[in-house]
Amino acid sequence: MEPPILEMRQITKEFPGVRALDNVTFSVKRGEIHCLVGENGAGKSTLMKVLSGVYPYGSYSGEILIDGQPQRFFGIADSERVGIGIIYQELALVPELTVYENIFLGHEISRNGVIDWNETIRRANEMLRKVRLDVNPAAKIRDLGVGKQQLVEIAKALSREVKLLILDEPTAALNENDSENLLNLLRELRDHGVTCILISHKLKEVLAVADTVTVLRDGKTVCTLDGHSGEVSEQALIRNMVGREITNIYPPRNHQISDEVMLELRNWTVYAPELGRYLLRDVNLQVRKGEIVGLAGLMGAGRTELALSLFGNAPGYRLSGELWLKGRKRVFRHPREAIAAGLAYVSEDRKAKGLVLIQDVRQNITLANLQALAKNGVIDRNAEIQVAEGYRKSLNIKTPTIEQQVVNLSGGNQQKVCLGKWLFVRPDVLILDEPTRGIDVGAKYEIYQLMNRLVEEGMSIIMISSELPEVLGMSDRIYVVSGGRMKGELPVAAATQEKIMELAVDY
Amino acid sequence: MTTRAAFVANLQRALGQNIRQYGMFIALFVIMIIFSITTNGIFISSRNLSNLINQTGYIAVLGVGMTLVIVIRHIDLSVGFLAGFLGAVAAIALRFWDLPTIVVVPMVLVLGGLAGLLTAFPVAELKIPSFVASLAGWLIYRGALQLVTAGTGTIIIEDETFNAIGNGFIPDVPLSIVPGYHTLTLFLGVLAIVAFVISEIRSRNKKLAYNFEVLPTDMFVLKLVFISALIGLLAWIMAGYNGLSWTMVIVLVVVAIYHFITTQTVLGRHIYAVGGNPEAAELSGISVKRMTYIVFASMGVLSALSGILFASRLRSATTTAGTLFELDAIAAAYIGGVSAAGGVGNVIGSIIGALVYVSLTSGMNLMGIDIAYQYIVRGLVLVAAVVFDVTTRRRGRAG
Ligand SMILES: Nc1ncnc2c1ncn2[C@@H]1O[C@H](COP(=O)(O)OP(=O)(O)OP(=O)(O)O)[C@@H](O)[C@H]1O
Ligand SMILES: [Mg+2]
Question: What contacts 24+ positions apart, CB below 8 Å, involve A375-379?
């Protein structure tokens, strides 16, 4: 019998205070799509970093075999040489360079050190065709949407002739269409002999594409399931990931919305002189006390701009229209003023805009509300530790201590730190921008429960989400944004995925 | 047996976790021992060390300010000639305008603060790189220094109060406990130790009351003994030669203030957050602009202080005062562990960095080493310090 393309045996990897991988065994057959699932912090990304040489040979224990041959990778270059390509949780493209420059970055087509641009562009076009991406190869990366960037990443990997392609949560930031495209592409690649490892928290997706599924929990392999034998179901995956049953993904709550309007936008318009166009036009929106309002729409519809502009972060933009908060007309020139007035905004991009990665969990959680812990500008360190410990427990943040730098936390736990930071501000209106991106089912459920508790206590929540089931499952009322305009408002009882999509694609 | 094993394990853990912090102290210590041997003990004499610390003063205060500038991902090249220029302004005010020191010093400090705000303006408002904005300042203040000293050349300062800032020592009490030693300095040393021990024990007890993690008892005692010994030693050495100088007092006050601000206050946390991730800081309600103004203004004030210390030490303002101070300050900050990527660095480190830097100069001068070799050695030490810093940091992260 031919050996599996990849075998990882008894892999153990420790960080100070954490055993991220504990005797993990992982085996991938040639030409399959193998999904790797597990809770936040289960060790998925770490396992893939061991495989790709990010954590070099010697920093872990155990064995890696490719095609039955033992391997020692001391860096990514070594794993690339045997045909492993990895696309990380956070994209690694250079925004200021063009598509073709990015595709061949690090292995430029050159003779005697001089780049052959004609050949580069020809090959780039070939790669783009393979991933079915229709863009000008001379376009700059920063001008492409996330979905397209993701495809460029794959083109980049393909140009290196990968045999084994690893994707770490590639669809976390994609909308349904782009995700669907990507999954189709993976199937196609598989049929052309490329083996794929896919990490994802979207179980529906896993069910749709997986030939095999491996579940990790707390750094250990729980089981490996065959995707075609009927033993894989959403319930089975959840049970193995979380160790218990979760039957109702969206926990029920007592709807008790008052008539009191907390926040209202009237003809809210945002013009960006640099781009020469309107980001938002005549947006009207109301949020009542104790209500969860969902903002649905496609990526780039203007929902994040809406949130940022009302939060006082609109550098260089021209705003018009009115913002009413708790019955008073307000103008926020800086997020500081918005926060003081009772707003909080949890960014969709936790690494770039949410966290100070080199600081620890404690410092991040208290950052937006240090005044509350200070007397005459001097921070009460002990009170601060108590606050941070409190959120660590209540949000179940997986970290050895609150003194851990957040850069060392897994993606989902970083998200929880962001949430904790903004809860500590004790806002009246909480804006959540893609709150469950990259979060596992168990933690999602916890966050939904938390949202329910907050609104029951009288907070109002604006939830921006590109996941329609989430919007439908959690909102009291749904607004649909498209092309910078408010396309419609639906009470949740009347909303369906189809109705929302109809409005969302209507420009 | 088991207690000793536990002790060693505790020690290894404590050192391992803080290798970066202790590394600088150890480096300074090693350098001092080497020079003490090569100069037959002259280096370690009270008189030499006292001089050395006084010479460190004007670089040390710049280093402290520069640390914060680098922490928020900027640089300020103008500080050297700004210090020189403001030193000359002080000299002119004393000599030609006949103003008293008590007026001149605050006036010059305010001017420094204004100059800092001026440098910050294009950086904060127009997002001009601070390298460029402060390079312009470098040129402008250099020209300004030459202008104000053009007619007179070196301006001699005759005001003895002013000159005492860089050359004087604190008075002694008329009471001799150890003959030949400065009694008040010894007394202050003891006071500092007592204050240190009490505050450490208090903070530990408070942490214990909250059930927080603290150093194991043996390590805690060791730390107390070690730092107390260090303070004691320093006081003893200084008491052996005229006692504490006014320069030292000023530097200690500056360091104390900045250490307090950076570690204990909201302002300090905001500065480090801006350095660590400006966008996240902005969205957390921290004004990046405001922090930029504050940090550059503080740099300006400290430049003025540096200029005062230097002019006072030389009892004059010269046409070239301040030349290359900015690079010495930057070197001190980097030796002290600041990171150009932003958000990392502390003022104590920079002071140690400045001491390392000046010790090298002083020690090599005593040994009669050619100035050419001195530059090379200083360059090597700078690289070694940064390499040490970067590698230990990486180890701390990747485990
Ligand atoms: N560099 C590091 N230093 C210390 N601990 C780390 C480091 N990297 C990861 N960890 C820890 O190892 C564990 C596994 O992390 P990993 O990133 O592999 O999780 P994951 O399964 O990918 O989770 P997610 O779904 O949230 O991305 C976590 O507890 C994390 O805190
Ligand atoms: Mg991960």
Answer: A377/B265, A377/B266, A377/B267, A378/B264, A378/B265, A378/B266, A379/B264, A379/B265, A379/B266, A379/B269
Interface check B286 vs A, CB under 8 A: yes
- Atom 2 (ligand 1) nearest CA: A408
Which residues constitute the domain of residue A26?
A: 6-241
What is the pLDDT, as a whole number, of residue B18? Answer: 67
- A44: domain CATH number is 3.40.50.300
- Does residue B267 belong to the interface with chain A, where contact is any CB pair within 8 Å? yes
Task: Indicate the pLDDT class of residue B397, thresholds 50, 70 and 90.
Answer: very low
Does residue A419 lie in a domain region?
Answer: yes
Q: Is A43 found in the same domain as A23?
A: yes
Residues A212 and A285 in one domain: no
Establish how many alpha carbons lie within 13 A of residue A447's alpha carbon, considering only the half-sphere containing its beta carbon. 27
Q: What is the pLDDT of residues A204-236, one digit of tens each?
A: 899 999 999 999 998 999 999 988 887 788 888
Model ipTM? Answer: 0.84
- For the stretch B6-49, pLDDT in tens is 777 777 776 666 666 677 778 888 888 999 999 998 888 888 88
A221 and A323 together in one domain: no
A43 lines ligand 1 (CB under 6 A): yes
**Are A12 and A161 members of one domain?**
yes
- What is the best residue among A18, A398, A444 to mutate for testing ligand 1's pocket, by most ligand atoms within 8 Å of CB? A18
Q: How far is A355 from chain B (nearest CA, A)?
A: 6
| A273 and A317 housed in the same domain | yes
Nearest to B266 among A311, A377, A421 (CB): A377
Residue A1 is assigned to a structural domain of this protein: no
